[in-house]
Specification:
alpha/beta, TIM Barrel, 5 strands, PLC-like_Pdiesterase_TIM-brl
Length: 111
């Protein structure tokens, strides 16, 4: 991936543990995120082993953020619901993950 010399930031993310570990062995530098609906014990283990650099949580479980590894940034993902993306865009979040291109472009222009 480093050889591709991409201009844009790239983050790999998965719901499954195995791809996270495989990607880390292939590239020690690329940001990797663990997609979860809510934090779990495995997120702590992956963070401690430096496999992941952030936890990507479902916005519906925002109050459970306190159970995530606190030293990692948390990115929030939404299921293509523009109203939720809009709400997240107007709060103090690090980043939003969405498949809704028009909402993503609005968020990008906001930054």
């Amino acid at each position: 991936m480093q050889e591709a010399a991409l201009d844009n930031e790239l983050m790999l993310q998965s719901f499954w543990e195995r791809p996270l570990r495989e990607w880390r062995t292939l590239d020690k530098e690329i940001p990797i995120g663990y997609l979860r609906h809510y934090p779990n014990r495995l997120s702590w283990q992956l963070a401690k082993n430096k496999i992941i650099q952030q936890v990507n949580l479902d916005y519906r479980y925002a109050p459970l953020r306190i159970f995530s590894p606190w030293w990692l940034p948390t990115y929030w993902w939404t299921i293509n619901r523009p109203s939720v993306t809009w709400l997240l865009m107007h709060t103090a979040v690090s980043a939003i993950i969405t498949d809704n291109i028009s909402q993503a472009l609005k968020y990008r222009r906001r930054k």
